[in-house]
Amino acid sequence: MTTPQVALVTGAASGMGRITAQRLAQQGCKVAVLDVNENALNELAGESDNIKPYVCDVSNLDNVTEIVGKVESEVGTIDRLVHCAAIMPGGLLSEMDPALAKKMMDINYGGTYFIVTRVLNKMQERQRGEIIIFGSIAGWVLTPNLGAYAASKSAVNVFAEILIHENTCPGIHIMLICPPAVNTPLVNQALDDGPKALKDQYGKGKLAQPDQIIDAMEKGLAKKKQIVYPNGEARALTLMRRFCPGLLWKLIKAYM
């Protein structure tokens, strides 16, 4: 896997976006980091001269278009996009504030659509580039108390898979990665109102670790994979959902 000269990483203020940006900067890549958390972005940028922060709301198309243009003019042509930005409130579908459910879809799916297509258009002009989209196992393996998030990630997973097969440029590699629950600040948003199984995994220290997911992402890029299930849990749950959905629902309900 070749280190890109310029990368754009969304959701870079924390979690897997932050780790990705740090790794790329250490490898000598110039990294444009995007998030709505300005303080955390500035702290991250203070770690390396290779990191340049941009405050950006990925759910706002005008903001995304403006920032992508700025990155290309101020940092350089984008060789790699790693899109991690998302939110993850939990709760029953019937009880969740409709505005929050809409916000989640706007950020998780709408933000994916906006940032990926704006960057992809630039890459198509040059006939080269890499795009990594963070979907989720939650988009395939459905869970009560996480319905709105699962719906948004289902949309992301479907969008990415179709985009992979719509892509006709051999110089552009698009990859979807579908991690299970990962021990990052994102998961903390769902601990109060999310699934009991998620709380139990968190309390017992059984959540996937972010560095392991990024390792799997890098291996997938090196092998030019299209879809990456980064660990045994992700692969097993996906297979169970496909071949034994009834059994999977019984197991899920046993934790409710």
Key phrases:
seven-stranded parallel sheet; Rossmann fold; alpha/beta; 10 helices; 256 residues; 51% helix
Describe this structure in words.
It contains 10 helices and 7 strands. It has 256 residues and is of the alpha/beta class. The chain has one domain (6-254): 3-Layer(aba) Sandwich (Rossmann fold). The protein has a 7-stranded parallel β-sheet with strand order 3-2-1-4-5-6-7, sandwiched between helices. Strand 4, helix 4 (98-126) and strand 5 (129-134) form a beta-alpha-beta unit. Helix 1 crosses helix 8, helix 4 (98-126) packs parallel to helix 5 and helix 9 crosses helix 10 (245-254). The chain starts with 5 loop residues before the first strand and ends with a helix.
Largest sheet features: 7 strands, parallel
What's the CATH superfamily, by name? NAD(P)-binding Rossmann-like Domain
The pLDDT mean sits at: 95
Sequence of strands across the biggest β-sheet:
3-2-1-4-5-6-7
Label the CATH architecture.
Answer: 3-Layer(aba) Sandwich
Q: What order do the helices and strands follow?
A: EHEHEHEHEHEHHHEHH
CATH class: Alpha Beta
- Rg is 18 Å
* Count of β-strands: 7
Structural class: alpha/beta
**Low-pLDDT segments:** none
Count of individual helical segments: 10
Roughly what percent helix? 40-55%
The backbone outline, from C-alpha atoms, is: globular
Distance between the termini: 43 Å
Number of domains: 1
CATH topology: Rossmann fold
Percentage of residues in DSSP E strands: 5-15%
